[in-house]
Write a structure and sequence with these properties.
Blueprint: H1 3-6, E1 15-19, H2 24-35, E2 39-44, H3 47-57, E3 61-65, H4 74-85, E4 90-93, H5 108-136, E5 139-144, H6 157-177, E6 182-189, H7 195-202, H8 205-214, H9 223-234, E7 245-248
Helix pairs in contact: 2-9, 5-6
Length: 256
Amino acid sequence: MSATQRDPFSLEGQVGLITGGGTGLGLGTARAFVAKGARVVIVGRREEVLQKAVEELGPQADYRVHDVADFSSSEGLIQSIEAQHGALTALVNNAGILLKKPTEDMTEDEMLEILNIHLVGAFSLSKYAARRMMEMGGGSIVFISSMAGLFGIPYVAAYSAAKTAHLGLVRTMTTEWAARGVRINAIAPGWIETDLNREVLKADHERMSRIMARTPMKCMGEAADIGWTAAFLASPAAKFITGTCIPVDGGAAIGF
């Protein structure tokens, strides 16, 4: 009996690529993948951050310094990972940045920067990853979307546009690739307690109160909550799940 037959949630034998994997939600996802037996490659732009993360993750982890907005290197990244670690079976599109400012003050260059990192970069990697997955028998691609892709949040127009577009990609890619073995899903995180959020909210009690009022569970989530959901979506246990977005938000998407 194979490991996946004993445990359909196992990722043994899988190779996962996680963008923005050195910190926050990406690192939480990498931890979950490693815990379930996968080999993971995390990518980001800061080598020292990636090195520190890999030291924590252990021998099942590797890293590549990569800018997701450098579309010309997307295919080469996939090839490099496969040459060293074997066929890529899972991709988690997590890399991103946040720009918070009034929409009327946002420049076109700022909008394009956000879209290139969140949307076009994720599209580019997904395209090349899916080609290889279809050749090798299948795989799973997960987009880390956002509540900003589900309802309006002020002052994050570019981020919201990109995260909403993730959901459009999930739907269209599913219709094209599902029959060829590639599953596409998204996760919409709610308010998650990361180092950055912790510092921001510590000084903004009013915003923290609004968050708790909107979240039925009355608490923030952890990076691990996103990681375990992504690991589930990459596992055989989710083999009939594609084309969907799972909110992991303590009920915020339906809160009042």
